Amino acid sequence: MIFGRSERGKPPVEPVTLKILVAGGFGVGKTTLVGAVSEIRPLRTEELLTEAGRPVDDTSGVEAKNTTTVAMDFGRITLREDLVLYLFGTPGQERFWFMWDELSEGALGAVVLADTRRLQDCFAAIDYFERRSIPFLVGVNRFDGAARYPEQDIRRALDLDAHVPLLTCDARDRESVKEVLIGVVQHAMAQASHRRAVTT
Questions:
Q1: Cα–Cα distance for residue pair 114/24, rounded to 1 Å
Q2: Strand partners, 111
Q3: How many angstroms separate the CA atoms of 121 and 167, rounded?
Q4: What is the pLDDT of residue 100?
Q5: For 37, how many CA atoms within 13 A lie in the half-sphere containing its CB?
Q6: pTM for this one?
Q7: Minimal CB count within 10 Å: which of 30, 92, 128, 174?
Q8: Strands 109-114 and 83-89
Q9: What is the rounded CA–CA span in Å between residue 180 and residue 93?
Q10: Distance (Å, rounded) from C-alpha 155 to C-alpha 153?
Q11: Dihedrals φ, ψ of 143, to 5°?
């Protein structure tokens, strides 16, 4: 089947679409993650960093970064002909956070990317999803040269609830990103089952 068309007279399949957000601090790898796994060329809304933004864009730890997402990144994965996954990468800087409410509408779950050199940058995303009861996991992006820490130390530093999954990943690697996305879908399904069990 070609996406959106029927094959040899078969009726067209209307796919179920799932939406996952990719959030986290500035320069944590959100755009890279979406691009690593999307089957289409990702839609990106990146702009060059300017002198005007220097006072508000903290580039410590990511000094080589020269662009920033100002609206969203968008990618797509067709899991099967009747199931499509949409990825929305959120902007990282505080001045663009007004976009998050629009992007999170109808989301199945979220990935919060973290950088061990700047863990505090993902606090806002964790808080956002906790307050809105959107299932999420934390993916610790393995940056070259970044220190490695035991999982329990990272959990403690982020004050994560015990049920929130924490995985290490490489946002550049397709297979690594797939494991993260499988993890967030499984977590969202488990949370939905738990809610149903509590209400029945």
A1: 6
A2: 22, 137
A3: 17
A4: 80
A5: 31
A6: 0.78
A7: 174
A8: unpaired
A9: 23
A10: 5
A11: -75, 145
pLDDT score, position 1: 44
Cα 69 vs. chain centroid, distance in angstroms? 13
Which amino acid, residue 6?
S
Tokens of 24: 């986290």
Sign of CA dihedral 107, 20, 192, 120: negative
Mean pLDDT throughout 19-27? Answer: 93
For residues 162-168, give the mean pLDDT.
Answer: 96
